[in-house]
Amino acid sequence: MKGKLVKYTVVIIALLASCSKSSTTDNSGSAPTNLSVSAVVALDNSGNVSFTASATNAVSYDFDYGNGIFQTVPSGVITYKYPASGTYSVNVVAKSSTGQTVSKSINITVTVVLTLVWSDEFDVPGAPDPSKWGYDIGTGSGGWGNNELEYYTNRPDNAIVSGGTLKIIAKKESFMGSAYTSARLLTMNKFSFQYGRIEISAKLSSALGTWPAFWLLGNNISSVGWPNCGEIDVMEQKGSDQNKIYGTVHYPGHSGSNGDVSTTVIANASTAFHKYALDWTPSYISFSVDGVIFKIFTNNGSLPFNQNFFVILNLAIGGNFGGAVDPGFTSDVLEVDYVRLYH
């Protein structure tokens, strides 16, 4: 299942068209003319591409970077970092003060191979690496705020590394007043990060009432509380709809059931390993499964998504999201092959 870890560099080849820069002075609301779009690739292998757009009578420019990311740039000058390899058609729409437009496209081919900066490959049998993972223990207040039914433990019965994967195991058993047990692993006070690509390869649980999740919380949760700290749910799934994958962000005004959520449907979520990834930058957060983006969230400096976040892996039972549990449930597993962070 595992591939070798390789340290990568970034190579970007840009195929671009450019024209001479022209005046951006507005002329009584006339339609923009002489639109020029150019791109300059950074030489430091950072993945940045600097775009410059200009047009006579234009007052703003709408950039479509060709990968589902859109941005309005009043000045027409912007640097954008591509997180993944591909050939992109970049379209720029110049707008006048009265809303008249003209557009121009250029093509760029980007090859991006990222640098691995942190990972857990789950290759050492036994308990999860204590230098990387801690545990939430107990039921939390009201079932961790979600009316979940499990008691989270740090026992090998509920979290164990074997055969090259981490197994988070939910069981039906009477334990400390709860009818089920499971595990919730987190990197809080051990590892956190700001921006980059984080990815897991995982095979999800299947039983009715199970709720596996791979998610992030802001480091400042103890001082500002939730949702002020911000939450990014890279992957959630429930056994009642095994192949529907949820990606969500929570922040003030968009917490709980009012989170900003998108979904995608895949095949074999509970019988095969899939790659669930998050690309996080100061300007956007994108969610993907097996390299296919299904959600893009616009980030900015007013949101809590510009600080360090830590990682959580857990398998819940029931609750507001997991729903009713199969009366015949005995045990199920969230199996994780690796967790990797790239910059």
Describe this structure in words.
This protein has 343 residues and is mainly beta. It has 2 domains: 10-112, Sandwich (Immunoglobulin-like); 116-342, Jelly Rolls (Sandwich), CATH 2.60.120. 4% of the residues lie in helices and 50% in strands. It has 3 helices and 25 strands. The strands form 4 sheets. Strands 9, 11, 12, 13, 14, 16, 21, 22, 23 and 25 form a 10-stranded mixed β-sheet that branches. Strands 10-15-24-17-18-19-20 form a 7-stranded antiparallel β-sheet. A 5-stranded antiparallel β-sheet has the order 1-8-7-4-5, with no helix packed on it. A hairpin with a 2-residue loop joins strand 12 (159-162) and strand 13. Residues 1-28 have low confidence and may be disordered.
Task: Considering the chains and any ligands shown, give keywords for the structure.
343 residues; mainly beta; Jelly Rolls; 3 helices; 4% helix; elongated
Q: Biggest β-sheet: count, sense, barrel?
A: 10 strands, mixed
Residues in helices, as a percent range: under 10%
**How many β-strand stretches?**
25
Query: Between the first and last Cα atoms, what is the distance in angstroms?
Result: 23 Å
CATH topology of the largest domain: Jelly Rolls
SSE order = EEEEEEEEEEHEEEEEEEHEEEEEEEHE
How many alpha or pi helices? 3
CA radius of gyration: 23 Å
Structural class: mainly beta
CATH class of the largest domain: Mainly Beta
Poorly predicted runs are 1-28
The CATH architecture of the largest domain would be: Sandwich
Name the overall outline: elongated
Report the average pLDDT across residues: 90
User: Which band does the percent of strand residues land in?
Assistant: over 45%
How many domains? The number is: 2
